């Protein structure tokens, strides 16, 4: 791992004029938002799976996952409840790198993430195929805190943060869209903060 972080905080230019999306306020705190408690995990039995519309379904142990090529990025974090935290440093594996390893079918259009607490969240495949979508295991150079999704979480700096599954342990490639936990309860499928896509 290198200390140099790739700064992707300017990705907002693709979506809007302001780094802070409309209706958000900047905070220096890093609040915890979880639908239920922090789940236990066991590094000996933890397994990360890639399933669905792929050439090769993957099942990776914690050690195998940690051996994948990783990078550190400086990113902004936007919670749909109205706070944004700038300049978060996350280290992990990019979504496109993982997708390439599995070999995604041409007819895959959507992705479902699943997590140890039963949480799920979905995104169109094209919104996942970005270098900034990371499976992150470190925050600010330290192991990702358990309440922030340790051992492994997804981060989606171009989307509201509910698209980033904490405690992620599965990715399924889909040929038709399905809805995740909050999406079934009325939250936006696409969740673009600069368009204030909070609800659907
Ligand atoms: N597995 C899981 N992932 C989750 C959630 C959850 O309840 N369970 N909450 C989501 C929501 S609504 C937000 S805003 C962010 C919060 O991340 P944080 O607790 O690290 O701030 O995690 C998202 N990922
Ligand atoms: Mo959230």
Describe this structure in words.
The chain is mainly beta and 200 residues long. The chain has one domain (6-12, 43-195): Sulfite Oxidase, Chain A, domain 2, CATH 3.90.420.10. 10% of the residues lie in helices and 32% in strands. The protein has four helices and twelve strands. It has helices spanning 62-66, 95-102, 125-128, 181-184; strands spanning 6-7, 25-26, 47-52, 58-61, 71-78, 83-94, 110-115, 120-124, 134-139, 142-143, 153-155, 168-174. Strands 1, 2, 5, 6, 9, 10 and 11 form a seven-stranded mixed sheet that branches. The protein is globular and about 40 Å long. The model has no long low-confidence stretch (mean pLDDT 97). The structure holds the ligand Nc1nc2c(c(=O)[nH]1)N[C@H]1C(S)=C(S)[C@@H](COP(=O)(O)O)O[C@H]1N2 and molybdenum atom (MO). The site of molybdenum atom has 6 residues, from loops. Residues 37-182 form the Oxidoreductase molybdopterin-binding domain. This is Oxidoreductase molybdopterin binding protein. Residues 17-41 are annotated as: Disordered. InterPro entries: OxRdtase_Mopterin-bd_dom, OxRdtase_Mopterin-bd_sf.
Keywords for this structure?
4 helices, Oxidoreductase molybdopterin binding protein, 32% strand, 200 residues, binds molybdenum atom, binds the ligand Nc1nc2c(c(=O)[nH]1)N[C@H]1C(S)=C(S)[C@@H](COP(=O)(O)O)O[C@H]1N2, five-stranded mixed beta sheet, Sulfite Oxidase, Chain A, domain 2, OxRdtase_Mopterin-bd_dom, OxRdtase_Mopterin-bd_sf, single chain
